[in-house]
Structures are given as C-alpha cells and as structure tokens.
Fold:
Amino acid sequence: MEVRLGATTQRKKLRIYERHDIDSLRQLARLSEGERAAMKAVAAVLPFRVNDHVLEELIDWDAVPDDPIYQLTFPQAGMLARADLQRMMELMGAGASAEQIQGAAREIRARLNPHPAGQVELNVPRLDGRPVMGMQHKYRETVLFFPAQGQTCHAYCTYCFRWPQFVGLDDETKFASREADVLVAYLRAHPEVTNVLFTGGDPLLMRTAVLRRYIEPLIKARLPHLVSIRLGTKAPAYWPYRFVTDPDADDLLRLFEEVRAAGMHIALMAHFSHPRELEPPVAREAVRRIRSTGAVVRCQAPLIRHVNDDPRVWATMWAAQVRLGAVPYYMFVERDTGAREYFEVPLARAAEIFRLAYRSVSGLARTVRGPSMSATPGKVVINGVARVGSEQVFVLQMLQARNPEWVGRPFFAAYDPRATWFDQLRPAPGGEGFFFERELQAMTRGRRPRDQARRSLPIYGASAATHAAVS
Ligand SMILES: *Cc1c(COP(=O)(O)O)cnc(C)c1O
Structure:
C-alpha cells in the first residue's frame, strides 16, 4: 500500500475532559463561579466530554455562550427544567454526597424520556428464537451493530439521543455485542440484509486492531448478499487525527482498503453538525485520506436550535462537504429525548430551513434528504407544507419503514405550527388515520413489556439483556 503520511499535520494525543475538569479548564475561567456551578449541575445529569481539538480548533471562545460548537458540547443551564437545575445546584452547593447527587440525577433523567418511542422491545432481532444483544434490525436491508468497545465518543454532543448509555442511566441500555461471530451467524440467516452499520457511541473510538476483530470476520465470511459496511462516526469532526496522525491511522485506512478489495462498499456515515467542523486543515486531510481508500464519506446531522437552526449554516455545510468530495445524506429532526426542550425546532420551521438551504445549493448537494424523523413506524420525511382544498397540510413520506411497503407513499398530516415530533401530528381533516396505523399497532401489540424482555436469555455469552435505546 502507498504510504500516506500526514506530513504537514502535527500529531496530537487525545486528552479527554469531563465533568470533574470543569473547574480546571482554562477556557472556562471566563465564566462566573455561578455559571460554572450551573454547568456542573447539568453535567451531573447529562453527559459531558470534550477534547483538545474541540476546545482549541472548533470553539470560538470570544463568541461564547452563543458559539454553536460550545452549545453543541458544553452543558447549558437551559438544558434542565428550572426546578431540576435549582435542586441540583443546591445539592452540590451544600456538599451533598456523590450518592445523593447520583440519586437526584437518576430521577431527573428518568423524566427525560430516555427510551424514545418505547422502542426497546421492538428492534432487537432474534436468532434461533432468542434475542441477539448488541444489534438492532428495524429496516429490512440494514442491521445496526453496537460493538462493545465502541460505545462512547471522542466528545459528547449535548443533544445526543443515545445519552442514557453515557451516563450509566441503566446498565442495560448500554447494549453492546461482544461477538462478531453472532453478527456473521445472523447475517448468514438473513440474506435480505445488504448493509451492516457499525454504530455506538462511536465505533472509531476503538483502536484499529479491535475494529479489525469485528470487520475481518465479515470479510472472511464472503457473504454474497453483503454489499456495504458502514461506520457511523463523529471522529472526522471531533477527532480527525484518528485518520491522519494517530499511531493506527494508517492501519485503519488499510482496513478500509481491505473491505473494498473484498468487493464491498465502505461508507463513513459522518456526523457533521456545523461547517466549522470542516474548517481545520486536519479535518480536511482526514476526509481526503478516507476518500483515498475508496471509502465514501456520507454526511448527516440533526437540526438543533442554538447549533444549526439556520438555512445558511446548512447550505454552507453541504457546499463544504461537496467541495471535499463528501456526500450530503440526511438532515434529521432532533429526537424527543434528553434536553429536547432546549434544542427542538418546530417541524414547520425545520421544513422551511431545509427548503431554503436545499434550493440554494447545486444538484450535487441535493443528495441530502430531510428533515427526517426516526419515529416508531420508520424514517418519516417532511416533504413540505401544501394546501389541499382549504386545509394546510404537511406532506410526509417514509424513507425507511418497518414494513418496506410503506416506503415512498405520500401522506398528509394536519399542519401544526407548534408540533415538534411525529407523535404530535394528526391525520389531515377527513383522513381516517395514517395509512399504516393499524398494521403498526398489530406489530407492536403483544410485545412483551420491557421488564419481561429483560429477563429473556442472552445468547452467545453476551452480557445480561442489553437493549436498544433507540427507535
Ligand atoms: C437510519 C437507520 C438505518 C439506516 O437507514 P438508511 O436510510 O439506509 O441510511 C438503519 N437502521 C435504523 C434503525 C435507522 O434508524
């Protein structure tokens, strides 16, 4: 293989800062004592992690607190309800014990809808009649795989919908698979699956040698129906050194080449929230090196108030991605979990932001789809707002669905300027219910409640029932 040294990039070692570093971070010295106390209170409830790249390259400290990357990574007082924030600050101010603080944090988290849409029971697949932990199989073609060692990230997004797994809300939400063999066995039994999507956390938090233990068995298995391996990651934004100067960066690129040589497509599903993340030269070098292996970088992110709720931000970001040869893929709607009230954008506004951004970029950037909600029936995209007779409606469509037959059928919901999530939408007047509703009910009826599902047998030595926290 050609050696691609990141010759112009200075090596950096990943140093991580969390809740207990808030008082010692020099960048935070500009905050008042009270502001830091509020930050610590929020960080006791919601996950917080940054690193030097985020601190030094991505945040404009002169623009704090409005800086989008600061909002993206640092806990803000408004992320908790006023009463919860006050209670936490009082506890901490009074020198409460770690157990007391943990106890209060657990209570608050339980009220933040940690398992959106109650999907815990619905997506865990079965093999030989038993649940397979560390995997989700919701859409026919694609299996999600959660490698055990890839369940945290290089930094945390304050809006993360998988936040419960980072705060130890419940050990059982940290679903992870230890066994690549299980994955291969499952795929052999499911020829309809063409895609495996490694996700987390961030699978690229794993050393390359560990990632190899998952990917090489997929290569060696030579499954004729497996078309693509995808890696869901925010490393190109939060830790681009992973692909450039980390000691095992070259080996990671070699692994991508091996997947390609085996006749499969490899895609990095890169999470970029803001064009700023693509500005540091090391981030561009990372994208260049990834692409030099034949891997494709596809970009996706949710639309988040305080971070990227502006069509110019998206248009700039998509253009920057195209410039680097990356492919704009999805704009998501912020999920109904965690600090949603701080981050959510009404669906009507989301559709408008999407439209304004979409119409201002060239066709090469219009590979993007959205705004899309990962809801119980499927990925529901808002195609826009229209008038039917005298009624204003949202025009919706599923891009993915529990039943593939639901995909691509336009349907309407009554326009509601305040709705922020799919479950707040109602069929357009005259409609009898969404076309898939009866079938969806039949699918979800009879599922065991979560506490029973927990007791089901784990297989192949996977740890006690680890369930999916996502829809
Ligand atoms: C988004 C998603 C996928 C991948 O969908 P694509 O449209 O193929 O990118 C797979 N599984 C789940 C559960 C998802 O939410």
Notes: The first strand starts at residue 16 and ends at 18. The chain has two domains: 13-110, 126-454. The two ends are 40 Å apart (CA to CA).
